[in-house]
Design goal:
By secondary structure, this protein is an all-alpha fold. It has helices at residues 8-34, 42-58, 74-78, 87-103, 106-114, 119-129, 144-163, 167-183, 188-203, 206-213, 217-241; strands at residues 62-63, 66-67. A two-stranded antiparallel sheet has the order 1-2. A hairpin with a 2-residue loop joins strand 1 (62-63) and strand 2 (66-67). The protein starts with 7 loop residues before the first helix and ends with a helix. The mean pLDDT is 89.
Length: 242
């Protein structure tokens, strides 16, 4: 006997606590941004504001009419704020965008928790994710706001693909993980985490355990040496390039 499908109303009512919490926290963080009247991480914030304003008005990333590299899609995310024209409303709108996207981390955090926990525990975990002091960064024009949301989204997509692999969940995980460094370069670690997680998933699968049981001690030794060499090589590569 199959379980009955939930109605649309039931789904809406089930989502109400999470959505209501998001709106309450969004109002709080949006108000909090008004208590920051001007940039205080000045050089970085000036760079992101100039890049995003140039994109908004010309479609090209520039700083003082000179082409500039874009190291984060955050510049494009902020661009619509400057369509308001004057600096003051544009600056306020940019901080509101920060508050909207960073607080939205509550949704992928809840989805990630629900893969492992019951509903109430997942709700509490999601709320804790967006109730930390670092949410004060919503008032700062820095990529952290977008990167925090996207990292949670990528981890949720990755976990869902590993636990419930389908064509669509795998595709979503691949896209989310590959785009993560475009939000903030340090999120390259998400790609490395995805590769390691996939290898662990394969190694601990029924087929992977069966293969491992068939190995001799010399094959195990070879695998250990190979893994150790790969770790050392990766460490040297990262130390040289980061």
């Amino acid at each position: 006997m199959t379980a009955p499908q939930r109605t649309f109303l039931a789904r809406v009512l089930a989502a109400y606590p999470l959505v209501a919490t998001y709106l309450v926290l969004l109002v709080l963080y949006a108000w909090q941004t008004t208590r920051i009247p001007s940039p205080w991480i000045f050089t970085d914030e000036l760079k992101w504001s100039l890049l995003s304003r140039s994109i908004a008005h010309t479609g090209r990333p520039e700083i003082r009419m000179h082409a500039a590299p874009v190291t984060s899609l955050y510049s494009y995310f902020l661009a619509p704020a400057w369509w308001l024209g004057a600096s003051s409303p544009g600056y306020a709108a940019a901080k509101y965008l920060n508050a909207a996207v960073m607080t939205a981390t509550i949704f992928p955090a809840y989805g990630l928790a629900r893969l492992f926990l019951p509903r109430l525990a997942s709700y509490l975990a999601a709320v804790a994710t967006v109730a930390i002091p670092s949410l004060a960064l919503t008032g700062v024009l820095m990529p952290e706001s977008l990167a925090y949301f996207w990292s949670a989204l990528a981890l949720y997509a990755l976990a869902r693909a590993l636990l419930r692999p389908t064509r669509w969940t795998i595709a979503a995980a691949v896209v989310a993980c590959l785009l993560a460094p475009a939000m903030r370069s340090q999120l390259q670690v998400v790609i490395a985490a995805a590769v390691i997680a996939a290898l662990v998933r394969v190694a601990t699968s029924e087929r992977g355990r069966a293969v491992a049981r068939s190995w001799t001690w010399s094959e195990w030794l070879g695998v250990v040496v190979l893994v150790a060499g790969a770790v050392i090589a990766f460490d040297v590569f990262v130390a040289h390039h980061s």
